[in-house]
């Protein structure tokens, strides 16, 4: 059901992605497809949280849990966009659903996405520390692995600055792993870009781009399907947990 994507509202621009570390795509997936995904993923999140009073902010492992997400992640228009942006063949390796609601309204401090999900622990130079999140093994790979990855954050609701939009520091993806002190200095000195997007739009970003988000100031959902893509297999027989 979810393999249709709209014509991109502006052409992919590898130069801008290289320079700024992100690109805003106003129309990537038809709104009706977003509505179907929003209903399915919201129900999945409710099912996972059960009667717990503490509502989670998201659901991991979606390339396995949702055939619709797995199909969408490999849809021709998304693949074509990413391949054009990177000049390589991109494949999905992890998908997470995030929502902010009055029951689960959270903020995220400035950070880079440094961890990847892998199938098994094989000690490999440059990989580590290792951790387990929701039962899935994660590790921090060398910077050259992260530098080649791309994340697509597909918006399933309209999202503006008052609704927990992601803020990014343009060009921060070029600095490798940034220390906590440097993150404080950079985010204190540089005006962030606020990624406001309509339903069906997407932010395409490098995982090393500094990003953060505020609590939502309104009671609507702010649903985002976050899909990570890689362009290369891992070394030393390490395997992406969810390579599609
Ligand atoms: O969706 C958000 O507001 C933040 C998500 C995030 O920080 C991340 O994907 O690393």
Compact summary:
The chain is 26% helix and 22% strand. The protein has 244 residues and is of the alpha+beta class. The chain has one domain (14-111, 148-230): Jelly Rolls (Sandwich), CATH 2.60.120.620.
What order do the helices and strands come in, and which of them pair?
Elements: H1 14-20, E1 22-25, H2 31-49, E2 58-59, H3 62-65, H4 67-73, H5 76-86, E3 91-98, E4 108-111, E5 116-117, E6 130-133, E7 136-139, H6 143-147, E8 150-155, E9 166-168, H7 180-189, E10 193-195, E11 202-205, E12 211-213, E13 224-230
Antiparallel strand pairs: 1-11, 2-3, 3-13, 4-12, 5-7, 6-7, 8-11, 8-13, 9-10, 9-12
The protein binds 2-oxoglutaric acid.
What does this structure look like?
- With 244 residues, the protein is of the alpha+beta class.
- The chain has a single domain (14-111, 148-230), classed as Jelly Rolls, CATH 2.60.120.
- It has seven helices and 13 strands.
- The protein has helices at residues 14-20, 31-49, 62-65, 67-73, 76-86, 143-147, 180-189; strands spanning 22-25, 58-59, 91-98, 108-111, 116-117, 130-133, 136-139, 150-155, 166-168, 193-195, 202-205, 211-213, 224-230.
- The strands form three sheets. A six-stranded antiparallel sheet has the order 1-11-8-13-3-2. A four-stranded antiparallel sheet has the order 4-12-9-10, with helices on one face.
- A hairpin with a 2-residue loop joins strand 6 (130-133) and strand 7 (136-139).
- The protein is globular.
- It binds 2-oxoglutaric acid.
- 2-oxoglutaric acid is lined by residues 98, 108, 113, 164, 166, 211, 213, 224, 226.
